[in-house]
Amino acid sequence: MAERERIEVISSSYRFTHTLNLFLYTMLIITGLMLFSIDLTAWLAYSVGSPLATGIPTTEPIAQGVQWARAWHRFLGHVWGALIIIYPLYLVITRRLTTFIPLKKGLRKQIREAVAVSKYYLLGKPLPEDIANNMDRHNILVAHTAILLVVSSILLSVSGLAMVYRDAIGLDLEGFRLMLLLHDVGFGMGVLYVLLHIFAVLDPMNRPLLLAMFGDGRVSLRWARNHMPKFVEKFLKKKEEEERIQEQLHM
Amino acid sequence: MVSLTFPRRDEGVAVLVRLDRCIGCRACQVACKEWNSLEYRPTEFSPTFTTPQDLEPNVWKVVFFGEITREYPTGFADPYVQPIPFNCVHCQTAPCARACPVGAIKVSDEGAVVIEGRECIGCGYCQEACPYNVPRQREDGTYTKCTFCVDRIQHGMEPACVAVCPTEVFEFGPASQVLASAEAERAAGKEVYGLNLDSYVGGSIRWVYSISKDKAHALKIRLPEKATVPFNFLREVLNPVIRYGAVLGAALLAVIGVIHEVKYRKERVKALKEATKEKGGKE
User: Fold this and answer.
1) B101 in contact with chain A, both atoms CB, cutoff 8 A
2) Is A185 a domain residue?
3) A31, A109, B29, B266: least CB-packed within 10 angstroms?
């Protein structure tokens, strides 16, 4: 396989889900922020609510804007909830969930890798050779931040649903208070994840991955060999196997 | 309107509720309904005198009847029914107003905490934040509660419930004067509720209760010892942590990112120059 050749590192289903998730998550943050922190978003609530309130003289623009955001937040929350249930299920059933593979390593190895990767991202120190040569599709920090995302998503979706269907499930006032707190905690964790994620993907070394995510999902073989050698090794092995089977079939 | 200004503790108005004088006639409860044009509904029989059993969207004031046992120094004890007229206590720094995401809960210069119905979006955050569980949801989804009869106060009148009381349970007046009366009650050996409360409600409320020590446990029927909502208190702590943490985190990561980018570009230029040099040398 020529070094200039490009290999697929992000499947089309992953790219589609990521784009959809990006849209829904952004909309949920914007609409949710109006309830979480109106002093920062009153201008937006006013802009949205002003035309809505014009036709209804007994309402206020900010109240209308926030009400509009709240309605959308609830609707989009359901769509997002469906997405975060269906896609991971698909990944698990088709055995394509690779994000947590680094967690199979021993704890010591995990810590060493996490420290090395953090030093690279924060201080620009190159990875030790043995760690660099053993890099798979995702590094250990990706697995750790993915746990953060999973916990955050569970907190957000469970508490969100409980609050929307408060009367139907008989949630009492104390339960509602707890759910509201958990929703905020989940949001905080989600914000932390988003910050770390954006920081990592904007790193110049990860640029080909970023372009692949919003492009055709492919990176050059040379780049992949440098950044995910173990993944390339497995990829090439699988490809050779497929070619061998094809040859045998044609013989 | 989303900004909030709470009048100081000694500013505005307040009410001292002398429970020892209350005979449980419920005139205050009726006057509240009358003045605020709140709809009546037939109530059910219950094992207590309290009717209806709790605050409702159309019941902003309820006289609760708490059955307590009064103990005497001789060892004799007898049952006693203590009426407790209860409505929104208008907290010093009302948590409901702080929690409202649209600023629908206004605090007047007099200290009255009022839900502006046309601005309410029905999220229920006010009820969630209230340690006294006061705001109630109407059928249209909006929340409602006692207004301290702010419309009367601003026209020089007393709140309706205060005005009708036949035994002068309520002492209404400037907050400084009422607070002094409450302190005097305390000095006279009475149990006073509402002066030294949690910082969550601003340390005090504008409806202060006083009662004889031997009947003091009746207060617990409707007035919690800790005027706080731990879950909402945590939310209030978490909110700035998330907001400022996100801004600071983003700024810090952006700086590191820019440093990385500059370093990366310099290294790339260097590598390109070296590669060009090598190429030139070979040729």
Assistant:
1) yes
2) yes
3) B266
Residue A194 sits in which domain range?
98-251
Q: How far apart are CA A62 and CA A119, in angstroms?
A: 46
Query: Percentage of chain A with pLDDT > 90?
Result: 74
| Residue from A70, A184, A194, A227 to probe the interface with B (highest B Cβ count within 10 Å) | A184
Residue B1 confidence (pLDDT)? 38
CB pairs below 8 Å between A and B: how many? Answer: 102
Enter the tokens of residue B252.
């810090």
Choices 3.30.70.100, 3.30.70.20, 2.30.30.40, 3.40.50.300: CATH for B13-228: 3.30.70.20
Report the gap between the CA of A184 and the closest CA in chain B (Å).
Answer: 7
Q: Do B2 and A39 lie within an 8 Å CB cutoff? A: yes
Of A78, A97, A116, the domain-final residue: A97
Res A52: pLDDT: 85
Position A188, amino acid: G
pLDDT computed for residue B260 by the predictor: 87
For residue A69, the surrounding DSSP H or E stretch is helix A61-93
Residue B105 structure tokens: 């809960």
Residues of chain B with pLDDT under 70: 1-3, 281-283
For A115-170, how does the pLDDT look when each residue is reduced to its tens digit (9 = 90+)?
999 999 888 888 999 999 988 889 999 999 999 999 999 999 999 999 999 999 99
Three-state SS string across A171-232, please?
CCHHHHHHHHHHHHHHHHHHHHHHHHHHHHHCCHHHHHHHHHHCCCCEEEHHHHHHHCHHHH
Model pLDDT, residue B78: 83
Instruction: Give the length of chain A.
Output: 251
Residue B37: count other Cβ atoms within 10 Å of its Cβ: 7
User: Cα distance from A41 to chain B (closest Cα, Å)?
Assistant: 10
CATH number at residue A112: 1.20.950.20
* Helices assigned H by DSSP within B201-229: none
pLDDT given for residue A96 in this prediction: 86
Residue B26 falls in which region: left (phi positive, over 0), alpha (psi -120 to 50) or beta: left
Res. A50: pLDDT tops 80: yes
Taking the C-alpha atoms of residue A181 and residue A192, their distance in angstroms, rounded to an integer, is: 17
Closest approach of chain A CAs to the CA of B203, in angstroms? 22
Q: Is B188 annotated as a binding residue?
A: no
> Which residue would you say has higher pLDDT here, A231 or B1?
A231
Taking the alpha carbons of A64, A65, A68, A74 in that order, is the dihedral positive or negative? negative
The reply to whether A109 and A172 lie within a common domain is yes
Mean pLDDT for chain A overall: 92
Are A88 and A123 found together in one domain? no
Q: What angle do CA A209, A218, A222 make, to 5 degrees?
A: 80
